[in-house]
TrEMBL record:
<dbReference type="InterPro" id="IPR036161">
    <property type="entry name" value="RPB6/omega-like_sf"/>
</dbReference>
<protein>
    <recommendedName>
        <fullName>DNA-directed RNA polymerase subunit omega</fullName>
        <ecNumber>2.7.7.6</ecNumber>
    </recommendedName>
</protein>
<dbReference type="InterPro" id="IPR003716">
    <property type="entry name" value="DNA-dir_RNA_pol_omega"/>
</dbReference>
<dbReference type="GO" id="GO:0006351">
    <property type="term" value="P:DNA-templated transcription"/>
</dbReference>
<dbReference type="InterPro" id="IPR006110">
    <property type="entry name" value="Pol_omega/Rpo6/RPB6"/>
</dbReference>
<dbReference type="GO" id="GO:0003677">
    <property type="term" value="F:DNA binding"/>
</dbReference>
<dbReference type="GO" id="GO:0003899">
    <property type="term" value="F:DNA-directed RNA polymerase activity"/>
</dbReference>
<dbReference type="Pfam" id="PF01192">
    <property type="entry name" value="RNA_pol_Rpb6"/>
</dbReference>
<keyword id="KW-0548">Nucleotidyltransferase</keyword>
<comment type="similarity">
    <text>Belongs to the RNA polymerase subunit omega family.</text>
</comment>
<comment type="function">
    <text>Promotes RNA polymerase assembly. Latches the N- and C-terminal regions of the beta' subunit thereby facilitating its interaction with the beta and alpha subunits.</text>
</comment>
<comment type="subunit">
    <text>The RNAP catalytic core consists of 2 alpha, 1 beta, 1 beta' and 1 omega subunit. When a sigma factor is associated with the core the holoenzyme is formed, which can initiate transcription.</text>
</comment>
<keyword id="KW-0240">DNA-directed RNA polymerase</keyword>
<keyword id="KW-0808">Transferase</keyword>
<keyword id="KW-0804">Transcription</keyword>
<dbReference type="GO" id="GO:0000428">
    <property type="term" value="C:DNA-directed RNA polymerase complex"/>
</dbReference>
Amino acid sequence: MRTEQIVSKALLNFDGDRYKLSLAVAKRAKALSMGAAPLIETDTRKMKFTDIAIMEIADGKVKIEASVEAKK
């Protein structure tokens, strides 16, 4: 699958919000770089952490939870 198709599929999980998607990819890529195990079944030895993260999100294996803080 091409990168554009993977990103389009991942965007569907965030209602097309690229900002939320980029936050989720960054957070998951950081977790992967810190030793988290990949959630996809593919050879990830030569893949970048961001590529693994976007594929996991596109497959629906990773979700993001939002929190809202009140202004004081």
